[in-house]
Specification:
Keywords: Cell membrane, Membrane, Protein transport, Transmembrane, Transmembrane helix, Transport. It is a single-pass membrane protein; Single-pass type II membrane protein. The protein is of the alpha/beta class. The chain is about 40% helix and about 15% strand. The protein folds into two domains: about 35 residues; about 80 residues, Nucleotidyltransferase, domain 5 (2-Layer Sandwich), CATH 3.30.420.
């Protein structure tokens, strides 16, 4: 009888499936997808940008500020008061010091609002400021 009970226990042990290798593979795949995913930052709105013949694609544009046709300022998909633009740019620049500020101004927006945003970026310590335009 003891022999039959011992044989039953060994059969149970052999029938267990070891999930550790499968979990390792799933974890490695998760890391792969996270590393290879491209994260696109958006200012939050679609802007009708003006055209320029000298427009150049800017790499590493991490701080995007949008100005719509009604002169409203958008950063990280939320509307921002003009007085708090500097604080928002300082916060985003602290997170990524190598990033540049790209202003996406609508062609119907006022030049005054664009200059206010540029001044706020420079007051925040970011001197690498670009204005977005479509290639002609």
């Amino acid at each position: 009888m003891r022999r039959a009970l011992g044989k039953l226990q060994t059969e149970e042990d052999e029938s267990d499936i070891d999930l550790t290798p499968m979990l390792d593979v799933v974890f490695i795949m998760l890391i792969f997808f996270i590393v290879t995913a491209s994260f696109v930052k958006e200012a939050g709105i679609d802007v009708n940008k003006p055209e320029a013949t000298t427009a150049v694609m800017k790499e590493r544009a991490n701080i995007l500020v949008a100005i719509d046709s009604r002169n409203q300022i958008w950063i990280d998909k939320r509307q921002v008061d003009p007085r708090s633009v500097r604080a928002n740019i300082e916060r985003l620049h602290a997170e990524n010091p190598q990033g540049t500020v790209v202003i996406q101004a609508d062609k119907d927006s006022k030049n005054e609002r664009l200059v206010q945003v540029m001044d706020a970026a420079r007051a925040a310590g970011v001197y690498n400021v670009a204005i977005a335009a479509n290639e002609r």
